[in-house]
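Weekly structure sync - notes
Attendees: PM, LS, DV (DV joined late)
Agenda: review two folding runs queued last week.

Item 1: First target. Sequence and structure tokens pasted below for the record.
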Amino acid sequence: MPALGHMRAVGGGAGGFACSRVAWGLLGLALTATGCEASHLIGSAGFVRTRFVEPQLVGWANPQLQLGDLDGDGVAELWLLDPRRGELCLRLAEAAAGALRCQTLDPSVGPSRLCLAQLTSAGQPQVLVAGQAFLSIVGWPADQPLTVAQRYPLTLPAAHVERSRGWRAGGESATDVVWTATATQPIATAWLWPGAAAATAATAPVPIDFALSAAATALLPVSPGRDGGRELFVATLAGVEHYSSRGTHSLLPCAERLEGSPRLALLDLDGDDDDDLVALAADGTLQAVERRASPPGWGCLDEAPLAEPGRSLLWLAAADFDGDGKRDLLAATAERSEGLLLWRRGLPTLRYPLSAPARAVSVADGDGDGDPDVAVVLSDGSLEFFHNSFAPR
């Protein structure tokens, strides 16, 4: 992404499915339907950083952030939502200063969560807002207000919303599955959109409710998962549960360490080519569970990445940032001096200072080049966009 004169650069890169067996087959999960850290390198290694000052965001409480390139023009879009007031904003990463485009959504949307998902096999991905009573699709025509284009009733308020790739007979679908879960009831819902090329977002999805063992504090749907199957990890107040399309369901070990986790991530911690689970604990530390191949199962790990006395983490996600074919771990901390930390197995941890503590972080391919980028909302009302410039390893 070129540096433009109207932006202040702060770093440089260096280094339809009916509710039938067809719909069930898309997911195939074992669920019950219910109607020592290396030395730090400091700076912008691997990223080109751009900072935007947006005073309008200063008063936002618990902002939601999603990064994407929905129209495929190679310009990253930063989508922001104030879940308390229902205010949705869009900022293009190459727009002039003061170009934050905002709209207060229908009050009936209520406190909300934000998600970007591919709902049709043709056309652009969509902006979804999951609220108290509705799952809403937001339209964003050029030079027009952001509006709720369609909405679908929720039986329970959505405290969590995630997406995973959809599946149909023979393999991966072009459409995503959107998952919602409530904070008060042990239920998760998978929303399936028809995948025909001629379908539009106006086509109503099929919601399928699944019974969980306890109410969710975080969801991590994985598709494809291990051995090409589908997996769902659910953090609850009782620990983390694992559901598999192979027909298995288990409570992962070390339940007392994992209970109530607000974020989960999968990556290979030990180099055995099996993805392990990392969970953000309530005290801001990371806890890890190892996936074992023989005998198949899970085991506790006494050490987790980024462990350092006094460090408190706020957020985490896994993606292949450096292009070596293996997921890395990105975490946000409460300290400005090491606002973001990037852990890569066998390499020094990279530390990225921020001008203020992070309030929200999103990882996605924001500019269509196939590499994961990063966007951050800071407590001082500014936004930072990290364009991935790692040289593939």
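Item 2: Second target, run right after the first with the same settings.
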Amino acid sequence: MNDPIEEAKRLFAENRKMEEQIRQDERLQELVVQLRDKDYITRELTSMRHYDTAAAKAKVEERAGMNVTASAASDRKHNFRNLLLMAASLLVIVIAGAWWYADTAKVTPPTLSQEVKQAMEKSFQQERNIAEVLDAGEPIAQKKNAADIRKLDLTEEAAEELLAARRVTTYHDKEFWMTLPDGTVVHLNYDSHLIYPEKFHGDYREVILSGDAYFLVAKDERHPFVVHTLQGDICDYGTEFYVESVKNTGAVNVVLVSGKVGVKPRNGAEQLMKPSEKASLLNNQVSMEKTDVSPYVAWNTGSFVFVDCRLDKLMNVLSGWNNIKVSFANEKMKEIRFTGNIDKYSGLEHALEALSDVTGLSFTQKGNLVTVEP
């Protein structure tokens, strides 16, 4: 008899769709739980050598819910062997999916749209996807992480885990896409940093964010995903949301695109958000309001969307993204309103030409300075 585990590996390579079948079938999920028991595997593989057709039929019907018709004993033996190979292949799926911290029946990674994939590709092509990455355990990482942790109210367990964690930092006109150990995808904006462990432990999946980031969180209802910020925590249960730090006020804004999120100010109670709501956390207070999520979704997929936006605020966005400074010939021009979309990856020159066409103003670039004139 061939090695069942080797057979299972071959079957896994041929049929990756089985992973999806597990998520959709509770019976297979129960089987996966059984297969995590080494004694169970040993008993089942051993039973193949001393095959009892009647017991096998009952076992198959009970554990896998399969309809086994009467046939020759040799056919039943073959079918049961295939079942065990299938079971072993399910075990391999669990092992192969160890980059999640829990089994695949419990954790569902986010689905990336074609627009998101295209944005990621453009970011790579234009060398925007660049960050400083300090691996867990590096002395400089621990020193910087410790400084952030001292500003937060973390449990002892979380503080210990995040002290020796990876630190990713973006600067100026860069961004960074990353996949966390549980399958969560994070799009880190410029001038931001994220601290996360190489593997999540305990009851929560905890990270620290300073700056702005878009999160597409892997769903795991048993282990909430928590983003710690200076103004409070965002507790997510598998969804899509954006977090931004407002530099001039110190507030932290959370925009819920889909799913369920709870926001908790420091020394305050958690409040649940609904999709298309924005929560602002500042000084132990939370304010909620309805908002249009399309600008945030668009940012994640490669566009800046402005709706009745003051020109000075629009230029602040472009200056951060392109690492430039902006000078206005007079204060009145700052109040001009703009509505429209600008492709993040089309280049600064294209963006300035589009603004000039719409506003009738002159945008002149010399080095890293852009001057706005009548």
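Discussion on item 2: The longest strand covers residues 303-310.
Action: LS to circulate a short write-up before next sync.
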